[in-house]
Specification:
Blueprint lengths: L1 H26 L2 E6 L5 H17 L2 E6 L3 H13 L4 E4 L7 H10 L3 E5 L16 E4 L1 H18 L7 E7 L4 H16 L7 E5 L5 H14 L5 E5 L3 H13 L7 E7 L2 H8 L6 E6 L2 H18 L6 E4 L2 E4 L3 H7 L4
Parallel strand pairs: 1-2, 1-3, 3-4, 4-5, 5-11, 6-7, 6-8, 8-9, 9-10
Antiparallel strand pairs: 10-12
Helix pairs in contact: 2-10, 3-4, 5-6, 7-8
Bound molecules: alpha-D-fucopyranose.
Length: about 325
């Protein structure tokens, strides 16, 4: 009887130990998710969906905001020191590419990028690092087409319209997006001389507002405007600038890219503004899927695809709810 009891106890202990071991090995997986602009709703959403993947798979997600290169480098060291196995990053500066690759390797961390693709010393994308980005040119073209359609709907003649090109040309995806949009405008007879560059110092609304204001003040004879930019924040800045110089909503057509809270809040306003639409992209794919891919890479040695480009869908005041539901982000 005594022997039986001992055997039972040993068995129970073994089961308990097994349980504990399983728990430990799951909890040990630690993945960093570093973003360049943590206060931007797009990145908040990416984190939210990455958290979902963490909850589902039982790994620890370490979310870090890194607005400049110095913070990014110390974030990578920090992840290494806390025993993470990999991270997903949207870098504050794509030219830091080789440094980021080296830092990740030095810390034994697997590396994937999201949104903004790293470039090497030669200015070309670093193709070895798995990346998920948006199909920037195509999405830009969708912006351009939405603007062309709205110009037609308002009965404007192309010649009387100015375009504010809110630009951030050090970021390749930003160039692809705005050039995609402008290519459609030009193909539809937009006067190239009426396109004005508004370089923003940072990729936020305030910087875009400042840049767009300079353009508006320099061209007071133009009363009808359109605006394109890297994201919703850029276009919202241009819209706020037209408002501040007294151009009414029906004199402005801004179409953004993103579809996160900043754009949606605009559509919820009782009166329509010059922010006419946004091409909604998927923070679920960029947050959930990248985190999951990193997890699979770490735990099951399943390497992510080297390049995934996601699509977008145009949404306006009257369609955004449906478009969001279709994308599974509601
Ligand atoms: C870049 C932009 C973000 C978002 C993302 C997909 O990182 O800065 O606003 O558009 O691409």
């Amino acid at each position: 009887m005594k022997i039986m009891k001992t055997a039972l106890l040993a068995g129970a202990l073994a089961v308990a130990a097994l349980g504990a071991a399983t728990t430990i090995s799951v909890a040990e997986t630690k993945i960093g998710f570093i973003v360049k602009q943590p206060e931007e709703p797009w990145f908040q959403d990416e984190w939210k969906f990455a958290d979902q993947a963490a909850a589902e798979k039982g790994f620890t997600l370490v979310k870090i905001g890194a607005e400049d290169g110095e913070k990014l480098i110390s974030a990578i060291d920090n992840l290494g020191a806390q025993g993470a196995q990999g991270f997903v990053v949207c870098t504050p500066d794509v030219k830091l590419g080789p440094g980021i690759v080296a830092k990740a390797a030095a810390n034994g961390l697997k590396l994937m990028t999201v949104d903004d693709r790293l470039v090497g010393a030669d200015g070309e994308p670093i193709e070895d690092v798995p990346h998920m980005g948006i199909s920037a040119t195509k999405i830009g073209e969708a912006v351009g087409q939405a603007i062309v359609d709205e110009i037609a709907a308002r009965g404007w003649s192309m010649d009387e319209v100015g375009a504010i090109r809110v630009s951030y040309d050090q970021l390749p995806t930003a160039v692809d997006r705005v050039e995609g949009a402008l290519s459609v405008l030009k193909a539809n007879g937009f006067n190239e001389a009426n396109i004005f560059d508004a370089p923003q110092a940072k990729t936020d609304t305030e910087a875009a507002l400042n840049a767009a204001t300079v353009v508006l003040n320099a061209n007071p004879e133009i009363k009808k405007w359109v605006a394109v930019g890297l994201n919703d924040e850029a276009v919202l800045g241009a819209v706020r600038a037209t408002e501040s110089v007294g151009i009414p909503a029906d004199g402005m057509i801004g179409v953004g890219i993103g579809g996160a809270e900043s754009a949606i809040n605009e559509f919820k306003k009782p009166e329509a503004t010059g922010f006419v639409g946004t091409v909604i992209i998927s923070p679920k794919r960029h947050g959930y899927e990248t985190a999951l891919n990193m997890y699979e890479w770490i735990v099951n040695d399943k390497e992510p695809e080297k390049l995934i480009l996601t699509a977008g869908a145009l949404a306006k005041r009257d369609t955004y709810e449906q478009v969001r539901a279709d994308l599974g982000i509601e």
